[in-house]
Amino acid sequence: MHSHSQSFPVLAGFAVLIPAHNEAATIGGLVEAAKEHLGGDVVVIDDASTDETACIARSAGATVLPLSCNLGAWGATQAGMRYALRTGYQQVLTMDADGQHLPEYLPLLLATLVSGEVDVVIGACPERGSRARQLAWSYFRKLTGLGIEDLTSGFRAYNEAAMKVLAAPDATLLDYQDVGVLLLLRHARLRLREIPVPMRERDHGGSRVFPSWLVVGKYMLQTSLLCLAKVGMNGKRRVAQR
């Protein structure tokens, strides 16, 4: 396990993207912690929240992108990437707004990315998953050949090449920042690497991605169809292992 560190040099040209929907309870502290541990710019994509998420994030020092309708976690993240490309950022880091991802590990993700050996860095914590999630991950790994242990982590760092792939219209068809995104990156022959990081339980509320078993079933069906379409299989050899 890598240890977290604040000793990495602060680099220019990056932003932390945080998609948030009704995360007033956590967003302020998260923005402040990201700025404390990494510096740079923090962009909160307010996914049509009905609480004080946008106001609190702005007061904590974030740039807030207000969405007029709810796009979901991936749609909001993609909106942030498009903003980052237009604004001229060379790297972005993504993290959840519910407190699961630890801001003190942001410097480790960014330092790994700017080493130039990879295009995408995934902060991975596969042991956090339930037995059902572990079985689902194993199923999708076998179906796709992806050599990624943590298929759903949204704690990532992307370089400009990866951002361009994920800001493209093809990625708009996806619902989640998981298997489909990884397959698109592999199809583009980009290099992925996982680094182990700890994660916490969410500070409050339930899963925004899987709020019910009906949604889980829909996710399994859609993702299976996506995998069977063999999106990106020709980039398999470029997926790095941690």
From TrEMBL:
Q: Name one Pfam family in it.
A: Glycos_transf_2
Which first-to-last residue range defines the signal peptide? Answer: none
Q: Which residues form the Glycosyltransferase 2-like domain?
A: 16-140
Q: Keywords in alphabetical order, please.
A: Transferase
**InterPro entries in UniProt:** Glyco_trans_2-like, Glycosyltransferase_2, Nucleotide-diphossugar_trans
CDD domains (alphabetical): DPM_DPG-synthase_like
Listed PANTHER family: RFBJ PROTEIN, UNDECAPRENYL-PHOSPHATE 4-DEOXY-4-FORMAMIDO-L-ARABINOSE TRANSFERASE-RELATED
Write out the GO MF terms: transferase activity
Query: What protein name is recorded for this chain?
Result: Glycosyl transferase family 2
